[in-house]
Specification:
The chain is built from 16 helices and twelve strands. By secondary structure, the protein is an alpha/beta fold. α1 links the parallel β1 and β2.
Length: 408
């Protein structure tokens, strides 16, 4: 089975799928930026600001033009090397909305292996309506991590026959017992975030969590002064230029594998990030920065970390952050594992080591279905494109050269 997979901050899942696929197929990765740049040659820049612009009725001409461009782009990728399915981590991106038609012209399905996981009550209620109105599911089939996540896509207009709960491939590593953490000074791992993340104003640039973040940074600085190794891990899409790194606090590359950082951390610190649920699976002590008044006001709309004080440490005053981390490091946690796993799996789905295999099984089933459905017109087009594949020595001089730099 040969897969062309779109990488939009999806590398951890791709690596897990590659490992599970082994020698029975190949995964070729194309950067999302290749498709995004092509789409922005057609659409006004506003298309990148949210879900609504792409769906505007008056932009039908733009959609038709980009659909043709995407079809030609996939044909060029197919000419370079055949693939049996085009797989994306989402079908809500404006630059993949036309992907079903382009993929079907090649006789292959357009599939989604969802990368998103945690769904808050606010996201379930409000965002699902926005997605349903402007970017309802269009993929031939979608895999999701959990039943909770499936409910989101059903609310957004998805077909229950086209959504399969598999678990999340990148979380397969948490099915085995965690390895012993490295020696040396204790390591505090803080998951940073944008000032408007997790808030109803997300994406507007509002500074609603700025004070919370600054007070957290102050607590991290005190930990560093007391001998801790303090790591700050930004979100891959976060602007890090405004982060205040105190003495002894190190900024981690945003692209660093979160799972490796969690494995080496003595204590993890965070706010509303899925990574804290991963820490709960990994057995890493978790300290939640829960003192912000706005967070308390919106508590019913957020991930309810504040309710899980029986298995994590919830800090209610900023001056208590550093001493709470100190205590959390050495506290006995007998009997916590089952409760933590139950909480995490509600949001992240089954974590039994089989998510990657189940995802690939679902993809393979769709591939086999499309193989049987190809008509003579599609088959002739596939043969024609394959026959136009230039020899390797000529490809660097062809139009395929630009693709080779974006595909790996």
């Amino acid at each position: 089975m040969r897969l062309l997979v779109l990488d939009h901050y999806f590398q951890q899942d791709i690596e897990s799928l590659r490992e599970a696929l082994g020698d029975s197929g190949e995964i070729r990765v194309v950067s999302y930026d290749l498709l995004r740049r092509e789409a922005l040659k057609v659409f006004p820049p506003e298309v990148a600001t949210g879900l609504e612009p792409y769906a505007r009725p008056e932009w039908e001409g733009y959609r038709r033009e980009y659909s043709g461009r995407l079809k030609r782009l996939l044909e060029e990728l197919y000419m370079e090397r055949e693939f049996d399915a085009f797989v994306s981590p989402s079908d809500a991106f404006f630059y993949v909305r036309a992907a079903p038609e382009a993929a079907h012209a090649l006789g292959v399905p357009f599939l989604v292996a969802q990368k998103e996981t945690t769904i808050t009550d606010h996201t379930m209620r409000v965002h699902s309506e926005l997605v349903g109105a402007y970017a309802p599911p269009v993929a031939d089939h979608m895999t999701v991590c959990s039943e909770r996540h499936k409910r989101f896509w059903l609310r957004a207009g998805g077909d229950p026959e086209r959504i399969t709960v598999t678990g999340q491939p990148r979380f397969d590593v948490y099915a085995t017992a965690p390895s012993a953490r490295s020696g040396g000074p204790p390591v505090a791992l803080f998951f940073s975030y944008a000032a408007d993340s997790y808030h109803p104003s997300d994406g507007t640039g509002a500074s609603v969590w700025s004070q919370l973040h600054q007070e957290t940074e102050a607590g991290l600085a005190r930990l560093a002064e007391s001998g801790w190794t303090v790591l700050m891990k930004p979100h891959p899409q976060q602007d890090v230029s405004r982060l205040a790194l105190g003495s002894g606090v190190s900024l981690v590359d945003p692209q660093t594998d979160t799972r490796e950082l969690i494995a080496d951390a003595s204590v993890a610190i965070g706010f509303q990030t899925t990574a804290l649920l991963e820490c709960m699976l990994a057995g890493t002590p978790v300290v939640y920065t829960g003192w912000d008044a706005e967070a308390q006001r919106l508590s019913a709309e957020l991930i309810p970390f504040h309710e899980w004080g029986d298995v994590i440490d919830v800090v209610l005053r900023p001056e208590e952050l550093a001493p709470t981390v100190e205590v959390a490091r050495g506290r006995a946690r007998d009997g916590w594992a089952d409760r933590r796993r139950a909480i995490a799996e509600e949001f992240l789905g089954p974590v039994d080591g089989g998510a990657s295999v189940r995802t690939l099984q679902t993809i393979r089933s769709c591939v086999e279905t499309y193989e049987l459905q190809r008509d003579q017109t599609v088959q002739r087009r596939r043969e024609e494109l394959a026959g136009r594949r230039p020899p390797l020595k000529r490809r660097a001089r062809s139009g395929l050269d630009r693709l080779r730099r974006a595909v790996r």
